[in-house]
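LOG
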Amino acid sequence: MTKATHDFRVLFIYPNTMMATLLPINISLLHACLRKAGFETRLFDTTFYHTEEINFEMKKVELLQIKRFDYADTGVRFKETDMLEDLDHLVDSYRPDLIAVTLVQDTFDLARRLIGRIRNRGIPTIAGGVFTTFSPDEVLAVDGIDFACIGEGEEALVELCRRLQAGTSTTGIPNIWAKTPGGIIKNPMRRPVDLDALPFIDYDIFEKERIYRPMQGRIYAMLHVELDRGCPYQCTYCASPELKRLYRECLNESYYRQKSVRRIIAEMKYLKEKYEANYIDFNSETFLARPIPDLEEFAALYKKEVGLPFWCQTRPETVSEEKIRIIRDMGCQNAQFGIECGNEAFRREILARNYSNEQILRAAHLLEEYGIAYTVNNIIGFPGETRELVFDTIRINRLIHPSTMNVYLFTPYRGTRLHQYCVEQGYLDADAEVHQLLDSTELKGQPLSYDELKGLQRTFPLYATFPESEYGRIERAERFDETGNAAFAELRAEFYERIFHMPYA
């Protein structure tokens, strides 16, 4: 006898970086798709548990990358209960028929701990996410994971639930690999979903406090809204080009596509009213890649029907004065673009980012001229990168005036061309783990050691903003000894007063 559809329960598990409060679109959409199909859903979210010594955002505060902020009066606080015991209780009380866990490489170890805790309950478990797509065999080797979703999951997960509910075979579902006693059944991929046909994002599955997120030292009730999926560019340190390749080779289909403007506006209007948001975060890797007529249509409707301040990210070569004027008038409050590396030849040959330093400077100066605060992304520690190359990046940051600057360590994620290159060159073991963009992992045989890179990371904003006459002091602060740490603490306090115009403490 099979269960009625409305009695079929799915428990999502979200192993998240501690206190990273940006609402994820993937679970919110999958939850919406399952609810539309008539299934019940619940969520176990690790965001507010103590899973690390210091959270990602506070690390950025310490590294001078963002302003200090305070979650007071928002209800955002750590959970004081035991994470694994809470998971036990939820599984035992909710009694799900399927567990669905989303994976990125940063949180794979945490996911294994969670799945390990409940693996003996006899509940079928599916893993999805970008890490699963590029490392399905490793994911399916985890005791307790029965299915792996390759690529998009909106249609595949609904089909799996229907088959489990009906008691029929679950081994032939496109996009899903199934672990069986006879081995892994690797099913073909299905066509990309029509973004306009998806249900609206549904954030109800998350705790209400998850809507709050810091931006430029303030806390906003922020909505994360999908405009497109994928990216038209080919950066070697990003997984988007490999997702495009995967869909092209398997299906001769384009992975990169955009939602229609009217669909985006309708969804944002609905979300704004439902969640009483006061800020929008556009989930688009290159917002200004849109043609000017599309951007003008978007801007006109957005101002009329949504009208909230927003954040977007783009690339230097997509910036023009006309586009900046449009988004300024539309309500853009903050923008972000990647410098990544300040050396044009290295950036072009190693990173496949084909814009000039002149384009970087022009993009920054246009944002400054039109009064839009902006953040720049910088990455150090690429394979073969020298101290002089790092200072090429510092030098271009000295020529502009971003509100904040991100300084990440190159992180060789699975599914990127630079990960493959690092493994082939012997810089990285194929199974090496990484720990998010601020920490990454150490590459072998590099011009700069891991400690040297960490020292440059924490002093990068100082080099980029303080007078060159103070470089001697800053260089001492690169060292992780008593003298270096004392120098950095002193300089950090000065940086907050000079640049952020507020005390550090």
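LOG (cont.) second protein
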Amino acid sequence: MEIRKYIIAALCAICSIGIHAQSAKQVLDKTAAAVSAKQGAQASFTIKGPSFNTQGTIAVKGRKFQATTPQAIIWFDGKTQWTYMKQNDEVNISTPTAAQLQAINPYNFIYIYKQGYAYTLTKKGGSHEVHLTAKDPKKGIQEMYIVTNAKTYVPSQIRMKQQKGWTTIDIRNFKTAALSDAIFRFNSKDFPNAEVIDLR
């Protein structure tokens, strides 16, 4: 009889974990839908990491984004990234990894959460917090917390663990906007004296 109780309890626990993970996935799906407006979206952000702090604005459209901080301007057209360093008047061209994109673009999680992560969901007041953990120990981002508004599913904070420690991204003033594809590519005419370094 006791063994039967333990088995039933274990099955209930397994079922509840499955339901919990499913609802966490639903929150992430709704958050991805809220962020990935076809015409584009804009927001302000603050980043605090182990070795740097900065703030700025970001425009996103699908996988494309353009971020501006006091130190740099970054363009990403879905494949190629251009980083203009204001201090040296220098542009670096690269093909970033998913972890590098996430460190720059707070909304990049909407493309990586379906690939090799387990989820748990916690509700805190008017917010959902989804905890993602990587199934593969080689992934660039091992853990991530995504905090979203429980009604609009717009994210307000993202915390992620990389090799050097935790990085926190706070997001404010999110709004949809009609954005031209041209703003996601570096235009050399706007920076005629910049040194261009191709790192690809």
